Amino acid sequence: MASEVSSVNVNGGAKSRAAMLEEQHARDEAHKTTVEEVVDEEDLKHPPPSSSVNEPESSTPAQTPAPTASPAPKPAPKKTPAFDVQSEELFPALGSGPKPKAPAASAWGARGSAAAAVANGAASGAQAVSEPAPGGFGSEVPRIISLPGKHMEQLRLAPSQMLPRGQLKKPLRDILRDISKRSKANVDMRGGPGGSIIFEGKGSVDAVRQALKEVAQQQSVRVPIPTSARPHIIGRQGAVVQDIQQRTGARVQVPRAEESASGADDDDSDTIDVLIEGDAVAAEMARREIEAIVKERASNMSLRLKSVPPEFFPFIAGAHNANLKEIEERTKAQVHVPRYDTWQSQPPPQEADPGHVQFVPVPEKHIHISGERAAAQEARAEIERLAADLQRQLTLRQLAINRGQHQFILGDNADALHEFLADTGCAIVLPPASDESEFLTITGPLDCIENGINRAMDLATSMQMASIDLSRQHPSAPMGPHAHARALTQYLRQRQIIKELERMYDARIALPPSSDGPVTWEVYSRDGKNTIRARSDIMNLVQAHPPTRLRSLAIDPYFHPYLRSRSIPKLRSDYGVHLLVPDELDSSDVVLVYEGPSASSAQVEIPRQRPSAAELATFEKTLQEAQEYLLSTLGDQNDVVATSVSVPAKYQDKVRKFISRQQEAKSEDEIPVRAIVGDGRNRNESEVALRGPSRLVEDLASKIQAFVVEQEKDDLERGYTTTFDFPQKYANFLIGKRGENINKLRDEFDVDIKVEGGKVEVKGPKAKADAAKTRIINLGKKLEDETTHVLKVPAQYHRELIGQKGSQVNRLQDRYSVRVQFPRAAVAATISDDQSVAETSSDAGGSRPNRPQQALDEVIVKGPSKGADAARDEILSLLQWVIDHSYTATVSVAQAQIPSLIGQRGREMDKLRADTGAQIDVPGVNDAPDESGRVQIKIRGTKKQVEEAKKTLEQRSKEFDSIVTKTIDVDKKYHKSLIGGGGANIRKIVAEAGGPTDGSASRMVKFPRPESSDSAIKLEGNGQVVDKIITAIQDFVKEREDQVSTTVEVPPSQHRLLIGRGGETRRGIESKFNITLDIPKQGSGRSDIKLKGPSNAVAEAKEHIESMLKDQQGETVEVPRNLHHAIAENGSFFRRLRNDYRVTVDHAGQQVPPKPASEDSRGAVNGSSSLP
Fold first, then answer.
1. What's the rounded mean pLDDT across residues 278-301?
2. Among the listed residues 1104, 1114, 1105, the one whose alpha carbon sits nearest the alpha carbon of residue 1143
3. What is the DSSP letter of 231?
4. Structural domain that includes position 706
5. What local confidence, expressed as pLDDT, does residue 206 receive?
6. Which of 313-317, 724-728, 1001-1005 has the highest mean pLDDT?
7. How many angstroms separate the CA atoms of 413 and 419, rounded?
8. CA-to-CA distance for 920 and 908, rounded, in angstroms?
9. Is the pLDDT of residue 799 over 80?
10. Domain presence at residue 629
11. What interhelical angle do 280-297 and 239-248 show, nearest 10?
């Protein structure tokens, strides 16, 4: 009792009871507890009970509140921040983002942490939990009380929680006195209820804790926590559990994930035990901190009910989920009841009377409940009550119905089971497709079973059926009629032909489930005619696929993965052959099916006609070629062997990774050895099964054995530990995002690595540990060389520097091994998703520290000095280029002009971009114009490029805006002459009017087609130019209308005078008088010369010709024909006359005599001739 233990003042003499009572009154007067400061019992959530290692059976917590419970304390003026379980530092992978780390508060501080709040009885009813229970050591926990008004702490220890008097180095009072002298603390002790001792501490918290460690008994406590809370208790790299150990002094052991109970991480019904070891105070403080974390993280909970048989699921959910909705509405919890209309691994029980049916839960079928803890527990209790009632009420009956009719009982309608339940009050369970049983099960109350049976039979018999035995259609198939029918069935199912038939004929086709029985198809349809049509179409398909079209091959299952990945595409594209590979691991039968050229297309054409003899020969030839190719690529199948290598279970994970690395090193064309590790279904679990070519199997087996020997040797050296310094500021880079980097090092070197407080501890075989140490030290040196550059870059240029989806930044980071960090606003505007470039690719693979404050015009480059300098220079160079090319301008053009600006296939715009070098953004066809029908073309580039492009576009826009469209009616008889040869005349008219001289001239003047009766000529272009062209056309037509034709008689001997040298005289006359002069050909004997043109011009030209010929004098000299060439001297004589005497010579239209032979000429010249 309190009166039996005298109070002790360790700093002075004993106080009287009156003095103590006076101090108590003073404290109470200073702080009067109000109702608002006390937490209601209804709001308290009691943590799970703790259990003692020594006495696990006495783990039931006492529920009676302690009669001496202290009132809830008033918060101290200087409140220590609460234990921040949302801290990114402690929970990097679970929090929403980095937050400042809260300073760790002592459990002895006044409401210093969530755990302290629990311990003080202000949050979780600690007083009720800590009251000793009769005969139960596990419930004797130290009571920690914070007195109101003063910074004073109280702690009550049960006698069993303190060291026996004989084990104390000094009397208890002397220990407290010594501690107070060393630490300036003031610790009092007095008796408490039940023989306990109450300690009152004031002053240094550490000193009080140290005092209690010397008097408290060491103990071990197991605290059950939900499996889902395990990562929150541990924290990143153990940060949270280490923090708890440092602040409480207790040792906390959280079991590994593989040692904990199996189950989903979000299932709070699965728990693990956390072991706490230490003195009574430390253990209790650690327990309460853990329970506070669990409580804060587990305000919502998730449960799986595995004890409810799946046959109850439809009745718990109710028809159309009516019961389920009512439970969710009442409890405010979310409940998911799986659909159960087909059993999988466990068939329904045997028939029995209600209450005696042996319904059994199925592990993989369970009800999932989630929501607020109280709501989830209430929903769980409600469902368990319903399950108990159903166990007493339900019975079942089994009904044998043809397997092909099972599909019509529920069909594809998602609500079919609900409708069945609503109509009959019963549920139905069908056998799976993999089971050949014909029995289905009706479950329900006894008075509803008959209704369910009748309804099931009605549904099953509502369809008409026709059957086809495929094995009878080709009885002489080389592979056997049954094998051919099964292969054809597999092929048509794989090619989705069966589904197509069902869709075409509104029917259902039931295929045989057995692989060795008759191959009989059953066609069901509500319309008998559709059944007949579907059966007829199926027969056509069977006849179109005779045995010659299918070929069976025996290929070892070892090659099947290779066939699926490599051979199937090759056979389709090169041979038009489809390959069927069996799904069964032990089946060696593969089938080649000829499809023809359509095999490689997306839509395969499935024939429905009987093939001709020529087609049968093609099938045979092509399948033979495909078979030869296939067998040649696989090699010798007889060389495939199987063996096993004994591997201890503890090495199997490592061996699995080792085999994976070996297989990845192989070339793509090499078929890897098939290895099965740790599968004990049909063999010893400690063996690794290998299958493949003998040489590869032997090689891999020897490597595995050598690897196991190496691991066993390494195990003998795993006690080797090396510790070295590593810069703490780079620990995050070493660890990596969610431990990726450090886990990679662990796997690579097969060592254990721990990082803490600027130290790295590597434990494992000496050679591997030293290699890992070297790698980590080199990483530290590399990080020490890290340089940070802060570049001032205006925000408007960030988008171009980042690149599309971060391409520019990623390229820089990969090239220089640096991190380039842009402000979040710039990244969010560039990257489409919610991950920034810096977050996805600039963290060196790891969790980075809190993002520094970064101005909107700053770009941070961080990395090794050489790489950072190079990246900085490249960014600045790119920035300068962007600035130089950031001049912009806009040009307003009519939307109707856009096609002409772009040109055919973009040629005009591409040419403009190439000529100017500017970036020109042309609005699309879907961009709406403004009210005046104009759109804006954006130009970007250097100043000169922008000016050139803008000038060109503005000029074209001005020209387009000045364009007019006019038509002129011209008689079609003038169109041809108006166009001229090859369009020469019209181009000349356009050019003289000021129009273009290139190919675009033809677009300004458009003539109607020759076969058209239209005579209107359309002109489109600049208004002034169009007007000039019209005037020119009108003048041309006027001239043509006034044209006359006359003749002038000119002796042939004078024709040469009108022609002139090279036709020069003739062209001059035509040009001068604007006429056409037609002179007969030489030697024609004609003397009439035609003049054609305007009447005035023709008259003037005629007068001019006559006067010109009148002035010419001539004389005719007769020359013997045989002497012509001797006189002419190859024309030199005529040229001398023209040049020297200005006299021209012609032949008056006579034909020039042929040139004599060479010897005759020589004889004539020499004055001699031969006699006849």
1. 80
2. 1114
3. H
4. 640-716
5. 61
6. 313-317
7. 10
8. 12
9. yes
10. no
11. 140
Handedness of CA 836, 841, 845, 849 (dihedral sign): negative
pTM of the predicted structure, to 2 decimals? 0.46
Q: Bridge-partner residues for 887, per DSSP?
A: 941
Structure tokens that stand for 163 in this block: 């060291």
Q: What is the DSSP letter of 430?
A: B
Give the tokens for residue 273.
């035990």
User: Is residue 809 domain-resident?
Assistant: yes
The CATH number covering residue 703 comes to 3.30.1370
Is residue 585 domain-shared with residue 672, that is, in the same domain? Answer: no
With beta carbons less than 8 A apart as the criterion, state whether 282 and 213 touch. Answer: yes
> DSSP string covering 579-614, please?
EE--SSTT--EEEEEE--GGGGSSS-----S---HH
Contact 187, 177 (CB under 8 A): no
Q: Which residues contact 862 (CB under 8 A, 6 or more apart)?
A: 786, 787, 788, 789, 818, 819, 821, 868
Listed in sequence order, the DSSP H helices in 937-1063 are 943-961, 975-979, 984-992, 1001-1004, 1023-1041, 1055-1059
What count of other Cβ atoms lies within 10 Å of the Cβ of residue 94? 14
Tokens for 714, please give them.
């390494």
Question: What one-character DSSP code corresponds to residue 489?
Answer: H
Please name every residue paired with 284 in a beta bridge, in sequence order, or none if there are none.
none
Residue 63 has pLDDT above 80, yes or no: no
Distance between start and end Cα atoms, the chain: 179
Residues 317 and 448 in one domain: yes
Which residues does 108 contact at the CB level (< 8 Å), separation at least 6? 116, 144, 153, 201, 205, 208, 209
Q: How far apart are CA 754 and CA 761, in angstroms?
A: 5
Which stretches of 903-1015 are assigned E, i.e. beta strand? 919-921, 934-941, 963-969, 1005-1006
What's the token pair of residue 523?
A: 């066609």
Give the integer Cα–Cα distance in Å for 93 and 86.
11
Instruction: Check: CB of residue 460 under 8 Å from CB of residue 408.
Output: yes
Decide: 918 and 941 in contact? Cβ < 8 Å.
Answer: yes
Residue 475 parent element (H or E): none
Residue carrying the six token digits 């929501």: 371
Two tokens, residue 812: 């820089």
Is the Cβ–Cβ distance between 248 and 119 less than 8 Å? Answer: no
Given 462, 488, 504, which residue is the final one in a domain? Answer: 462
Segment of 150-159, 615-624, 973-982 carrying the highest mean pLDDT: 615-624
Encoding tokens for residue 607? 């024939």
In a domain, 397, yes or no: yes
DSSP 364: T
Query: What is the per-residue pLDDT for 20?
Result: 54
Q: Give tens-digit pLDDT for 563-580.
A: 888 888 889 888 999 999
Question: Average of pLDDT values for 1102-1106?
Answer: 84
DSSP labels, 652-715: HHHHHHHHHHHHHTS-TTSPPPEEEES--SSS-TTEEEEEEEHHHHHHHHHHHHHHHHHHHHHH
The closest alpha carbon to 1020, from 1034, 1036, 1032, 1003, belongs to 1003
Q: How far is CA 504 from CA 125, 462, 531, 542, 1144, in A?
A: 70, 20, 11, 17, 98
- CB neighbours (10 Å) of residue 295? 20
Joined tokens for residue 703: 């490597």
| Mean predicted lDDT score pLDDT of the chain | 77
Average pLDDT over residues 867-871: 90
Per-residue pLDDT, 538: 92
Q: Do the domain assignments include residue 5?
A: no
Question: What would the pLDDT profile of 978-990 be if each residue is shown by its tens digit?
Answer: 888 888 888 888 8
Place of tokens 């989830």: 376
Sequence-distant (6+) residues with CB within 8 A of 703 are 658, 662
Q: Total structural domains in the chain?
A: 9
Render pLDDT for 9-19 as a digit per residue (tens, 0 to 9): 433 344 454 45
Q: Which residue type is seen at 523?
A: V
As a whole number of angstroms, the distance between CA 1024 and CA 1027 comes to 5
Asked if 347 contacts 426 with a C-beta cutoff of 8 angstroms, the reply is no
Residues 515 and 647 in one domain: no
